[in-house]
Design a protein that fits this description.
- The strands form two sheets. A four-stranded parallel sheet has the order 2-1-3-4, with helices on both faces. A four-stranded parallel sheet has the order 6-5-7-8, sandwiched between helices.
- It is 46% helix and 15% strand.
- It has two domains: 112 residues, Rossmann fold (3-Layer(aba) Sandwich), CATH 3.40.50; 147 residues, Rossmann fold.
- The chain is built from eleven helices and eight strands.
- α6 links the parallel β5 and β6.
- The chain is an alpha/beta fold.
- α5 runs antiparallel to α6, α6 packs across α11 and α9 crosses α10.
Length: 271
């Protein structure tokens, strides 16, 4: 089955796309063609989109699905009149929430992505800069200033997780790749060891690690299954000595890994 899906908004469309993707993920047997349509904020653009929806319906022989966060009623009525399955994502939540709060919604577009808390915005920018400056064990002497320190073998998911934590939660996240020299010594550098109270170990299935390393250095000893098994085994021994929580990144998304870290982190979050 093939269906075309439009993510539509009078603003950036980030909310419609994010929520829409989450809903579509429950229907993995359907082949979705996804179309991102932000800034549909005039009647002319709405009518043009209706024409595109009709073309998609003719091509797929099924009406397209439209996920939207459209607060402009005039434009919403135009789109509803088009040949589509119309899903207004805000309707489900805004009116019941308004009734509970006893306050009418502002119905202003783009507020969820506006800089409404300058202090938090500055904190996130500082955290992103910290994560980039302290990636891959470049400055272990800075780990004392980190909120979170991720440790694991090369290509186990440390860097993207650190960046996600900094961008979305304002956490100063640093990471350290365990090297062959560390394995030979049987311990981590002193600055890294001293950060163990805010440390999380990342592990991964050796077969999965082999696939990831092959993309970076195909056919190398670094990417061999024997090397991957050795690295993971030695890393686990080190995590055990450090007595740190261990998270497996094999089948979990960055969001899922980050959620586990947030539950364990000791720094209060002002988000």
């Amino acid at each position: 089955m093939k269906r075309t899906v439009f993510f539509v908004s009078e603003s950036t469309g980030i909310t419609a796309e994010t929520l829409g993707h989450s809903l579509l993920s429950q229907f993995d047997s359907v082949d979705f063609t996804q179309v991102y349509m932000p800034y549909i904020n005039t009647a002319a653009r709405a009518h043009a989109l209706c024409e595109r929806m009709q073309e998609a319906a003719d091509r797929d022989r099924a009406r397209p699905i439209l996920f939207t966060t459209m607060l402009n009623q005039e434009i919403a009525d135009i789109l509803k009149g088009g040949h589509c399955f119309y899903q207004e994502l805000f309707e489900v939540f805004v009116e019941p929430l308004s009734a509970e709060l006893g306050v009418p919604p502002s119905r202003k577009a783009g507020l969820s992505h506006a800089i409404t808390k300058p202090g938090m915005y500055t904190k996130r920018i500082d955290a992103i800069n910290f994560a980039m400056a302290n990636d891959d064990g470049v400055r272990p002497d800075n780990f004392v200033h980190a909120d979170v320190v991720l440790v694991g073998v090369s290509r186990s998911g440390k860097t993207p997780t650190c960046l996600y934590l900094s961008m979305h939660f304002g956490l100063r996240a640093a990471n350290y790749p365990i090297t062959e020299e560390d394995f030979a010594r049987g311990e981590l550098p002193r600055e890294v060891w001293q950060a163990r109270k805010k440390m999380f170990g990342l592990t991964i299935d050796p077969q999965r690690l082999k696939m990831i390393r092959e993309e970076r250095r195909p056919g190398s000893e670094y990417a061999s299954l024997i090397r991957c098994q050795h690295d993971i085994r030695e890393a686990h021994n080190m995590f055990k000595r450090l007595e740190v929580p261990v998270l497996n990144t094999t089948n979990q998304s960055i969001e899922e890994i980050s959620a586990q870290i947030l539950r364990g982190v000791k720094t209060p979050l002002n988000t």
